[in-house]
From TrEMBL:
GO biological processes: alkanesulfonate transmembrane transport; monoatomic ion transport
Residue ranges annotated for the ABC transmembrane type-1 domain, each copy included: 123-304
Natural source organism: Aquabacterium soli
Protein name per Swiss-Prot or TrEMBL: Nitrate ABC transporter, permease protein
Pfam family, one: BPD_transp_1
Amino acid sequence: MVSAVFHSPLDASEAHKASRAPATPSSSSPMTSATALTSLSVAPTAAAKPAAPPKIPTDWGALILKTLSPLAGLALLVGIWALLTMNSATFPTPAATWKAAVVLFSDPFYSNGPNDQGIGWNILFSLKRVAMGFGLAALVGIPLGFIIGRSKVISSMLNPIISLLRPVSPLAWLPIGLLVFKSADPAAIWTIFICSIWPMIINTAVGVQRVPEDYLNVAKVLNLSEWKIVTKILFPSVLPYMLTGVRLSVGTAWLVIVAAEMLTGGVGIGFWVWDEWNNLNVQHIIIAIFVIGVVGLLLENALVAVAKRFSFE
């Protein structure tokens, strides 16, 4: 038995049109593909960015305390000074000294002859002598410290001499310089040299002697030359000791030059202090004391910065 199903011509034509119509892609498909591609391309970029480091909060309390503490100490010093000189007719007050300092530093580089120059010139001449005497002491003292530290024989020979000469007062060396050089300027440089050489010799020698023995044994196994032992092993290990000796020496040199210039005369901060005393100008003497202290502090801080810069720790 054959069964037949009849369709209307309208249905047949609609079915034919549907079969011939082009397939229209879904409207959500491109968006989905684009989103996927975007996520694939963005994801690696987002993953490659490092996380921002956390911000460390500023400790304002510690910063203020660190800043105000030195100022409070200076204020205390000036306050005690003002109280002690309140009714004094001979010792100047802080206010009077400040007025004299303003006038003095208004023209620090005037020159009215070899014996009448501003405080700026006197400081520069003193620093020049310190640099020359200290430089010569470093050129001699540091290599000599390496030699003493490396050789037990030389160490035993020179240790008694160093122990004998090191405690001698700086002013005791000045007449020897005047006798030998017949001039005040070389005599002052000689005094700086002989007084500032000992800390560099001693600290450098101690640093060499404290180098671990294992380092030197490795150098022997590798058959290194003495120059390479000094430059590659000893120098990095000895550098902190050596810089400590340099700091002590420059402080000693700055102390010595003031005393030496008081006796030798000429141009320099020491002579300037003595000249102001002869003129009974106590205000300028107090100003010179502060200037000498500030210059010494700057030299000390400069060498501390150099020590930190070249530290191998």
